[in-house]
Specification:
Layout: H1 4-7, E1 11-15, H2 20-31, E2 36-38, H3 50-60, E3 64-67, H4 75-80, H5 82-102, E4 107-111, H6 140-160, E5 164-169, E6 171-173, H7 186-200, E7 204-208, E8 214-215, E9 217-219, H8 220-233, E10 240-242, E11 248-249, H9 250-261, E12 266-270, H10 285-288, H11 298-312
Parallel strand pairs: 1-2, 1-3, 3-4, 4-5, 5-10, 6-9, 7-12
Antiparallel strand pairs: 8-11
Helix pairs in contact: 2-8, 3-5, 5-6, 7-9, 7-11, 9-11
Length: 316
């Protein structure tokens, strides 16, 4: 559990705080008793530009920055825009941390991605294997750009004594996720496909890849809790995995979502589409040291996500 005394007088800036994960982090910080929580919007402070970041920090004077802002998407979006995914993510991270250092921010929390791991890292991924190979090609530019936050934070800690930590969440899911078929990740993409198929009375749904790739999924509220706990209690330069401790094949995931949505047609796997990384599952031993453990049952979390989407989809 978090300590209200740590947060009571803190001003916290959460970049990306209006986004999927960020909105839950903002809520969790407020529940923990943070003195002031600020979620800057890109239309006011464009984090790709140093002047805008300097102005943000002058306007808000934060004690802590949680850097969640990112340009993200599924395999298709990463394949179409690798340069954009690299440039915008690396610039936002590097400029925000540098301005935080210059402004005397007490703590900087970089939130990375499990896409940074090597394509063929042993399962479960342990933090020591982060540099033992090149990431899976379809999202390598994004994964490497986010990994630069780790390098920068460690270098700044060594040279300037800057308190920067780096967290590596596994794939997230939950209410308020991105359900846009052009850029969504696998769980919201499948939920939307099955809901649409039922509405259209379609007899089959086509899924990307062979279905044999595996993924691990962490409920978004559990991830928000882990980020807040780490900010409060973790002080080391080594990166930390945040995961749920299980993996499921895409084929089994699709079957489970179909069952929960109520789709009874046929599942077809388009093997001309890429699988992405063959397997993903994280070792979360290091995170247990500061009390993190995923609490949400996967089936229950999927049900909540599906219910939210069904209720909100006409507004999306």
């Amino acid at each position: 559990m978090t300590s209200g005394s740590y947060w009571r007088d803190k001003t916290v800036v959460v970049t990306g705080g209006a986004g999927f994960l960020g909105s839950f982090v903002v809520d969790r910080l407020r529940a923990a008793g943070a003195g002031r929580v600020i979620a800057p919007r890109s239309r006011e402070y464009d984090l790709r530009h140093e002047e805008a970041i300097a102005r943000l920090l002058a306007d808000t004077r934060p004690d802590v920055i949680l850097h969640l802002a990112a340009v993200v998407g599924g395999i298709g979006a990463n394949r179409e825009s690798p340069g954009l995914f690299f440039y915008q993510n690396v610039m936002m991270g590097a400029l925000t941390m540098e301005q935080a250092r210059l402004a005397g921010v007490e703590k900087f929390v970089g939130v990375g991605t499990n896409c940074s791991y090597p394509k063929f890292a042993p399962i479960p991924f342990v933090e020591q294997d982060l540099w033992n190979g090149y990431p899976e090609e379809t999202n390598a530019p994004y994964g490497i750009a986010k990994k630069m936050l780790l390098v920068q934070g460690q270098a700044y800690r060594e040279q300037y004594g800057f308190d920067a930590i780096h967290l590596l969440p596994v794939n997230l899911y939950g209410p308020h996720d991105n359900f846009d078929p052009a850029s969504s990740h696998v769980i919201p993409a499948l939920i939307r496909k099955f809901v649409d198929a039922i509405e259209a009375r379609a007899g089959e749904v086509v899924c990307w890849g062979t279905g044999t790739a595996t993924r691990e999924f962490l409920y978004v509220e559990d991830c928000a809790e882990g980020i807040v706990l780490a900010t409060e209690q973790y002080e080391r330069p080594d990166p930390v995995n945040l995961g749920a401790g299980f993996e499921i094949s895409i084929r089994d995931l699709a079957a489970l979502i179909a069952e929960l949505v109520g789709f009874t047609g046929r599942l077809v796997f388009d093997t001309t589409k890429p699988d992405g990384q063959p397997r993903r599952s994280l070792d979360v031993t290091r995170a247990r040291a500061f009390g993190f453990e995923a609490k949400t049952d996967f089936r229950a979390g999927l049900k909540r996500t599906i219910e939210w989407y069904k209720a909100e989809r006409l507004l999306l």
